[in-house]
Structures are given as C-alpha cells and as structure tokens.
C-alpha cells in the first residue's frame, strides 16, 4: 500500500461529468490498495466570478469606470471568505460522487484539517499541517477530499494561498502525510522539453529535477506553480505531473516509484540516470521592458531606481546597465511583468527628480527565452553555443541573465518561436 | 444604545445593488448608536443551484430519469458543506460593502462564532451559541455579519438548519446576545391579517403575539419560519418583521421598543393592548386529502394506518374518522403535504392487507382555512360563528381541527378565496 496525494485543477473539476472522471481516477488508486488524499480546486471559472463579486462589492469596478484611481485595498480576510467557497463546493461534490461510486470519502476544509497559514490573507503561506485525524482516517480506507487553495490563519479566519495555491496545498499535505507521491493531474500529460504548440518535435520528459522544474516554472512554463516546486524540493516530495484526461483505467496502476510510466516525475536529480545538458526550453511573453535613458552613472542610482519599485511591490526580473559613454551617464534596462508596466512607469515618472534621467521608455514587444538543465553545471560553453546559434538566425539579444542551471535571453517578441525552435534543436531535444 | 440583530433573506441580498441597500439599513442603525449583528441568507436562487449540484453529484436526477426509484440518501454532511457556501459568500460581500461605506464590519461563519448544532445534518437544531468574542467586538463598534442557516455539528462538520433556517439563526443569536430586538427584513412590510392578494382590505398588524404568529406560520403564512417563532417565544426574543425594500433613511430610527412603528412586532401578548378576538386568517393550498373507504372499525386500526406513514417520515395534519354506518366499517380522511401525496398513497397501498380497506382516494383540490387569535380563549362561540358564515356562502366543511387559539377547516379549493374573504369580514378585520 502506498500513500498518495492526488491534485485536480479547475478544468479537471469544471462540471459533474469531469468530477466523475476524477472519481474514476481516485477509485483506480483506491482499488489498487492505496490510501488517498485528493486536493481539488474550484470549478473552472468559479474563482474568477467570486473575485469579480468581491471587487464589485468594494466598488473597484465602479471607481475604475469613473476614471478615478482604482483601489484594491479591500479587506483580504473577506476576499478569502468569499473566494474560498469555490473549493468548498467541489470538495463536497467530489466526496458525494465518490460515495455514489462506492468509495468511502469525506470532504475537509482547510480549517477542519487544520492547514495553518500565516496572516498574509489572499497570498498566505502555509505554516503547518496537522494531519493526525486525517491520516488515521485515510489509513482506515477513507479518501480525504481536501478543499485546496485555503487554510486557516491566526485569528480563526480562512486564508487563501494565492492563485494556483492548490498545487502548494497538495505538496504541503504530501509532505505532512509523508506520502509516497503527489500526483498533480492537469490538462497536459506531463512536462515537455518546450511548448509543443511552438515546437511539434517537443517531447515529454519522463523525469525532471526539482531545480530544473523550478527554473521552468519561473521562466514561463505554466504546468506547476513555482511555490509548490520550491516546497517539493525543500521537503523531498516526489511530484508526478499527469493528465486528468487520460482514460482512468489506462492511466497506470499506481506504481509508487514512477506512477506507471505516465506523466513526468519531478524528483531529486540523483534519481535521473541519463541527464541531458539542457532539459528544456522555456519562454515567456508576459514581461515588459523598461529603459531609462541617460541616468547619472554614480553610486546609489540603482537604489534610487529600484527602491520605489520595490515599495510599490513591483518585481523586477532582468537588469542590464550599459557601459557609460561619457563616464557620467548610462542607459539602464530592466524587465517587469507586463501587468505592472503602467504602474512601473508611473512610479519612475514620480521619482524622476530623485533619480535624474533624460527619458523613460516602456515596451511589451519582448520575449524571454531560457535554456534550462542541471547538466550545465558540468558543461562549459553552453552559453556561447546558445548565443552563436541565435546570432546565426539574426536574432538580437537585448539582455542576458544566468544561473547555475539556466541561461535566459531577452529578445524581440517577433523572434520568440524561432528562438525556441533553434535552441530546442541545438541542444538535441527534437524527437 | 440598543443591541440589534438584523436578518436579510435571499431576495434582499439577490445582487450587489440589493446588498448595498442592506448596508444602508445597517448603517442607519449603526449611525443611530446601536450595536448590530446582521444575519444573511444566500443570494436568491443560489441555494437551489447548490442543492441541484448535490443531487446531480449523487446521481439523483439521473436515476429519476431512468425511471428507477430516486434516492435522496446522500451524505447530508457533504450536502451541508456544499450548500452552506452560499451564505459564506454573502456574508463576506456584505462585510466588504459595509467597509466600503465606512462601517466597521467582519464576516462570521457558523463555525467561527461558534454556533453549535446537533448532528442532524441538513435540518440541524441549534444547541448553543457562544457569543463572547462576537459580542465584545459588536460593543466595540464592529458590525458582525453572520452567515445564516448554518452552524457547526459535533465532529467539526458544517451543519445547515434546513430551509428558512436563517430566521432561526437570527433569533438564536438575538437570544444569546440578549438583543433588544431581532429585525427580520423580508419582501413584505409586516404580518397582515390575511394575504392582501386575496383580500385587498387586509391590513398590517402592528403587533402579534408569539402564539398567534406560530399558528399563522404553521397554517400557511410564509412570512416567518415556524421554528424561529417557537424559539422566539421560548426565549422571549422581540421580533420585528419589516420590509427590506423600504427606503433605508425612512425606515425608522431604531426605536428599540417598536422599531419606529414600521413593520409588525412579534411579542408577548401582554404587550398587546387592544386584542381582537381573531387576529388573522391564514390559508394553505399545499395540503392533499387522503380517504380510506370502508376501513375496519376496530381498535388499533389507526395505528395500522398512521404507523407506516410515520415510518416514511410523512407528516399527517388533520384527521377525521366518520361514525360507523354498520358498526363494523368506517371511512377515514386525513391530510398530508401535497408533495408527500404520491408517497403516502404508495405506503398505504403496500399496507392494504394489514390495514384492510375497500378503496383508497387522494385529492389535491382542497384548501385549509384558519382563523387565529388569542382572544378566542375568552370568547365562546367563535367556531359556531365561523361555521354558519361559511354555510351561508354554501361552503361545505370537509374536516375541522382546533386548538386553543385557532380553528381550521378543510374545504374545496375552489372556495378558498371566498372563505378567506368571508372570515376576514366576519371577524372585523376589513379596513
């Protein structure tokens, strides 16, 4: 018998037909003799509807329409009370569907487990999961159906974990339960070497290391939430990414080691026998470029630029500072999330006097393309290979950032697909 | 300063515009210096949608369509988890709308208060309300916005109180808080002498006693849930029934004694100075008549008829047994809820051998009309007056039931309006 955590996202529980399909997956694992906890998201679209209600309640939309500054500073504890109801509904429905299929099951809300969080409502972090009763009942043969995305904060209030938080719920539960595996069922059948819509020759990876998965998630692959990968790495939780649309009876027989050869296992790199230098190519189009022209080239200027942005909770990703032409001025380029661009420009305009620059430009016509692989650690020259392959295709690199296992380049958005295909071939990933 | 509980039903919180109207009512009371708790139902229609999801999850509809016997024996704890989410949403939204209007407020789920119930999920009874923290915060100026219809059962599971349970939530809270008044805001502006759609001369009662209100509710008036009136009577909670559609600024200034002369105050009969003999005429069309022909007239036959019905959880209301013609057989007539008629007939058909009867008939073409008033206790001859007035109009009485403060008659449904108008005039209630 293995102890498994299964997580199903919003599209997998979008209606009762799909919830029945989820139940079939769960039943297969139960029939295979496994003790199961199932973490569910809200039905697809439900969370957006609830968020819209909250914003309308606070007058967010009305004020935006009037042209006045919109304020999102509503009471996030109430946001959490409203928005968490979506997962409450699906957890109860799945428990009923499982019972109707003859599987013992009960629903658990975050506060019932309890899954404890800090007080950062709407984006809370998990501080502890008390699984005593839950685990005892699982080992007794009862499936625990858990409302994802939520826990209980100090003060006895419901807290949500932020968008995509159900992945994190699942991994945290798997860690607390010392589960053999955490299966993340999603709408793709695993982690690919790159987006198959861009590169038809992309293939699914059987295994990927935590470090690589973390870079893939951070660099634009949507398959897992970054925080959940961090947590899995930290706690050593084996995560299997697989498709909820596979026929339940064909979808493996619950082999605790690999999940029956389906999906992609996210695990420690020691478990991966044959390691490519580069495991995958990620790309992101949701970044925007900000350029400050003729900034004073003096100590402290970076703090004057990035301090106000940090205060406005705007994350800055890549930063490039050109060599000074005249020894007194330089150009500075960096990227932010596209959604933050207008706000970033406003912050910088308001700080123009303290920073001192000639002009300010913003653009969203950029893409970030990244090559990722733990093999880079032991292979020199990967960056050089990458830059020359892009140069051969006439693709100009606007900025570069690297880590031990990743090289990212910022390029003109028009060349994004070409760059991804070029790098996918270059590093031997085409099948 | 008074301590008030305000309750708003589903139509009063049907959308955000109406929730803003609710907030205006609450703000008026807060501005008047009162400490307020507000109990809310789910948005109109929401509970029905959630119930439909539960039934579909359990396969209820699918089985019904297949012609097989439908089973409602799903896990009511999961029903409660799903269905209680409707009130969770409105409580959070109203708290936000109040905050946006500058009123300090927070939402409370049943389990957060806690409002404790027994384990009879889907129709739980309140066993206790711990208002320590809630009341302290109310007296500190924070409006408590409470998800109605729900509490927490033994075993830490959410329990709902059954349809219309938010009225009961409000009264139970008012009792626990020792509130000065419990205002039930609804879609009518109070309790009427009878249904104004049937009798245009009906008028709103300024006050009505608990006993009368209880009979009115039991006999068909929909304005308050029966259980909430019982609880108010038992705990001595002063209940004001008023309209949520009144302009908030005109709707009284929070006079704890009477609520500013608006609505109908449900209170102890000692508080009612001028008491009519009859206070109101109620009628119900949702009952059905069952007649057993030629039942053996012997001891124990009633038990053989009503035992199986009780086992099937079918409530029987009025019962008439005719005088035996031949000393050996009699006809027996009784009423059940229309919704239970088919099931009642099936139960009786299955028990035909043990009961022994010639024929079985069911009909829904009946109405029950009731005259209600505590004044009956000290006035003889009310029943006689009533029967002769109906006889004058040619209305045949098929069955009679009485209590100390009520006389009900069962008549042909076609005469229901005529009977109500006749009795309304007879007892001097026309305005």
Automatic annotation (TrEMBL), chains A, B:
EC category name: transferase
Amino-acid biosynthesis found in the keyword field: yes
Residues annotated as binding substrate: 47, 87
Gene Ontology biological process: homoserine biosynthetic process; lysine biosynthetic process via diaminopimelate; threonine biosynthetic process
Keywords attached to this entry: Amino-acid biosynthesis, ATP-binding, Kinase, Lysine biosynthesis, Nucleotide-binding, Transferase
Residues the entry annotates as binding ATP: 7-10, 186-187, 192, 197, 222-223
EC number in record: 2.7.2.4
All copies of domain ACT, residue ranges: 290-365, 371-431
GO cellular component annotations of the record: cytosol
GO molecular function terms attached to this record: aspartate kinase activity; ATP binding
Pathway(s) where this gene product acts: Amino-acid biosynthesis; L-methionine biosynthesis via de novo pathway; L-homoserine from L-aspartate: step 1/3; Amino-acid biosynthesis; L-threonine biosynthesis; L-threonine from L-aspartate: step 1/5; Amino-acid biosynthesis; L-lysine biosynthesis via DAP pathway; (S)-tetrahydrodipicolinate from L-aspartate: step 1/4
Key word Translocase present: no
Catalysed transformations (reactions): L-aspartate + ATP = 4-phospho-L-aspartate + ADP
InterPro entries: AceGlu_kinase-like_sf (IPR036393), ACT-like_dom_sf (IPR045865), ACT_Aspartokinase (IPR054352), ACT_dom (IPR002912), AKii-LysC-BS (IPR041740), Asp/Glu/Uridylate_kinase (IPR001048), Asp_kin_monofn (IPR005260), Asp_kinase (IPR001341)
Classification via PANTHER family: ASPARTATE KINASE, ASPARTOKINASE
Family according to the record: Belongs to the aspartokinase family.
Name of the featured protein: Aspartokinase
Species name: Methyloceanibacter superfactus
